[in-house]
Predict the 3D structure of the following.
Amino acid sequence: MAFNFGAPSGTSGTAAPTAAPTGGFGGFGTTSTTAGSAFSFSAPTNTGTTGLFGGTQNKGFGFGTGFGTTGTSTGLGTGLGTGLGFGGFNTQQQQQQQTTLGGLFGQPTQAPAQSNQLINTASALSAPTLLGDERDAILAKWNQLQAFWGTGKGYFNNNIPPVEFTQENPFCRFKAVGYSCMPNNKDEDGLVVLVFNKKETDIRSQQQQLVESLHKVLGGNQTLTVNVEGIKTLPDDQTEVVIYVIERSPNGTSRRVPATTLYAHFEQTNIKTQLQQLGVTLSMTRTELSPAQVKQLLQNPPAGVDPIIWEQAKVDNPDSEKLIPVPMVGFKELLRRLKVQDQMTKQHQTRLDIISEDIGELQKNQTTTMAKIAQYKRKLMDLSHRTLQVLIKQEIQRKSGYAIQADEEQLRVQLDTIQCELNAPTQFKGRLNELMSQIRMQNHFGAVKSEERYYIDADLLREIKQHLKQQQEGLSHLISIIKDDLEDIKLVEHGLNETIHIRGGVFS
């Protein structure tokens, strides 16, 4: 699961499992437990050493952008004048592994301090004795709300300092678990990530000056060359620059400086100050995790994350070979990941647009190429006919005055036979004539059908209908007039007939 929203399960004062209280805050990472008191506390399951994400920030750790070590002292500071330029350049693998594990995963055991902190937290949230009356219950609820939110101070005793609530406390609701890609670069690749508080356009426009400045930071040694592996835009107008350093030996060979050695040099106080003046806000190595490091990281849940949620995140990992679960504590971290995702979506869309334009250009080139191929085929056919005609005339000129040879006579007989077969009414010529007549008829019908196709605009069609309607009304009016005239004519005829009969009777 990429995100797991809900409340971590709590335990009562008697260590019996209870459900976390439900209130105005829904929280992150809900786990169902048996019902109990409204709010209770007990020691979390991961007491003793804290996880990688507990306590202070470890800037040497960053999934998706790199994985580095902190606190190492070997490197450029003491080795620029010996060997190939780096004191830690030929450091044994065992020493590097000890440094890495000691800096990242070696957590000091502070069980008594953590126990006192847990007891103070439990007292502040369940039974404060600051006022000695019913107001302590209200103070307990206020402390609970601060613990849920992950900020503020919990006062519980006049003689003991208040408890500082942070988002890493186990009762903070605003937590989730996401997944980040594990880097697959080796330490020998020497890739180090520098995050600049500048825009990508500024970095690209001043890339040469940046390389020269980094070379000066490395001491200006002529055997060292700074190279830029890649530049990527980050949210909040920041830019990620991936660099590596190549060191050349006097015998002409060259190799990359290991990432841990270069990172250890950058982490020195004076060097870090110079990098900050260049606008560097964060530096880390981009090296893959060893199986032991991954195992130790997954076995220890981060500080403040419910072990059940952590185990479920490991089960729901869509690709355990490439992805690793990481906690997201607070809305700022969630917003940061959302911005990074939006940034990557924009970069993918930009790349898709570029690919679409390239495909369109290739399709145009393909159409042009196909037209040229057809043109060249016609030219080849024309040149072949012309070449054949030249050969025929040359052969006629060469054979002029010679009698017909036997092979030529045989060839003439074969050609006459083929000509007779083609001219036979029931053979190829008759069929060809029949096909030609059918093709002409189809072309004629196609032309007739194509001529009958027409399209009338809607306004023009409406005007035609209106005109025909008026014509029909006019014809109807004419028909009614003609009918009236016919009736009048019939009356006149009838009157004339009666007058004739009357006159005939008088004369008789």
Q: What stands out?
A: The chain has 14 helices and 13 strands. The mean pLDDT is 76. The longest strand covers residues 224-234.
